[in-house]
Amino acid sequence: MNDEFLHALRRNPPPRFATELKRRLDRQSARSRRLPIMRMMAGVLLIGGVAMATALLFRDRQELPSKDVPMAQAPAPKAAARAEQRTSAPRPDGRVTGNGSVTSQVPADEASKDIPVALVTSSLAQPLAQALLERLPKYGYFAQPRVATMDGDGAFDALCGNADLVVASRRISDAALARCRKWGIDVVEWKLGYQAVVLAAGPASDPLALTPRDVFLALAQRIPDPADPAHLIDNPNETWHDVDARFDRRSIEVLVPWEGTSRSLFLQLVMVPGCEATLSRGGRRPYAYGYDVCRQLRSDDHSRDVDLGNPLFAQVASVPNRLVVVDYSFYAAHRRELGGTMLEGPAPTLATLTDGTYPAARPVYVYAQKSHLDWNPAARTLAFELTDEDAVGPQGYLLRQGLVPLEAIPRYMQRTRPPLPSPLESLQP
Amino acid sequence: MHWPSTGDADWEALYADHLPRIYNYFRFRLAGEADVEDLTARTFEKAWSARSRYRRDLAGFSTWLYRIAQNVCVDHLRSRRTHAPLDAAAEVAAERTLETDEERRSDLTRLAALTAALPGRERELIALRYGAGLSNRAIAPLVGLSESNVGTILHRTVQALRSQW
To answer: What is the distance in angstroms between the Cα of B61 and the nearest Cα belonging to chain A?
Structure first.
């Protein structure tokens, strides 16, 4: 290959450097041999200290009655205060957290604040990631974050590479986790909540049980020609009966938000699965039919882009059997004004979102390289933000980006565990 | 002294074999910067302190070691990225035009000038192939490419460098 000029550039390291490094490694080795002895000594000191503290506590308690101090006025044991402190995640600014206790301050090296946080997000979780990053300046100056949007395994590959944090709309796979562990990378995981979308109707509407395929065939701009499925034609379906003979002849009329998270969720969680179910037949991949074929909605009266505001309920109620796409939080807050879901399967509730049986929902996970959290203050600040009630609680700012919070108990457990979770060993719960 | 997780392998031999490779990897990757010795030392110290986590069933020893070197290199490049004031840019440019004769002669400096325009992936491949002296097969898992892809990209890159050498 005529590459001798490159081979010729190799040099041996200076002998002085090689010798000195060898000596340092030997010293490190000797230190590591001394470590068990030092650990044992530290353990003895710790046990001795605890024993002494217990003895002092007992002595205090024995002295209290003799001084006639009412028990109600007795000072609270320090151990309880420490336990209270442990239940709160420390925050970068050392401020009061959700349950009211003041916590320790995370040391943030001013110089290392110039290191930008590298965040990778799936397209679905992008608004959540953006909202999290917008909080960073509130904790002081940090370098401009670097954000990349990747779907599929790309985001998890980046986690095993140079990304500090990954926000994903699904859990990491066994293979991706094994790949990271193979390179000696410890991965930590948080579950933020869920993203879900509901295809609802007015309360007077007759129920439908639509599959994602039915929705695709009703709303896509172009669908396969029934006479020649290899070719696409402009969507001719006027009624739900045209889509599938099991439905009645009511007109197709769906209101879809013209932008925002609800629209993205609807396209990703309903239209794309429906498109894949329809177009993947015969061994062809959907994108062989053209870019964006799964995401392009028809632009006639059967699918109308609307701005979802207050007149929404009037719009839905005015025409029987008109459907509307809303995110789960909106649906949960206005369940009475809206009818049930029109998608096949269980109704959207926090329970069906949690157990994964509601089809148009995804969990949201955040992953980080543990070692990066140690040296990158911006990544560490974001990690603490992930368990903050201001972010993920029932009134958290991430709810405005379509996040459905976890149930109270798992949220509480996540908040009260150690400030940074342990590295994932496997995906077993 | 033995490297515990590598079974009976002799640490002395591993150290002697890999030190020049890691050293040259950083020389090629960073074009002979002064930090090369520091980064080489950091790589070996990290590997030594993390030796208990190395698993023979998951990766070869050299793959594991070069992954650590890659991470050290990326961390270094990231931390080195400072925001110099605009005035400094003029000074840097002036310094470059006044290269010393010694620098002009340095082949590594020539290589750095040639590879500066290459994407990071190609620079990484050159460093792993010619700095660390790894085979295409050993490089493939380190960069997430197939062996034949590594070969093709390297061939094109070397041809391009050769034509300008």
So the answer is: 11
Does B104 lie at the interface with A, CB-CB under 8 angstroms? no
Q: What 3 state SS string does B27-43 have?
A: HHHHCCCCCHHHHHHHH
Q: Which residue of A has its CA nearest to B39?
A: A21
Question: With the C-alpha atoms ordered A161, A164, A168, A174, is the resulting torsion angle positive or negative?
Answer: positive
Provide the sign of the torsion angle of the four alpha carbons B142, B144, B147, B150, taken in this order.
Answer: negative
E strands, A350-413, where? 361-369, 403-405
3-class state of residue B79 by DSSP: helix
**Contact between chains at A1 and B155 (C-beta distance less than 8 A):** yes
* B1/A162 touch (CB, cutoff 8 Å), yes or no: no
Q: Smallest Cβ distance to A25: which of B44, B67, B162? A: B44
Q: Tens digits of per-residue pLDDT, A315-373? A: 776 777 788 898 888 888 888 778 778 898 888 888 898 888 998 999 999 999 888 88
On whether the CB atoms of residues A378 and A133 are closer than 8 A, the answer is no
How many CB pairs below 8 A link A and B?
Answer: 89
In angstroms, the CA A38 to CA A31 distance is 10
pTM, whole model, 2 decimals? 0.52
Q: What is the rounded distance in angstroms from the CA atom of residue A116 to the CA atom of residue A79?
A: 39
Closest CA to A260 of A329, A323, A173: A329
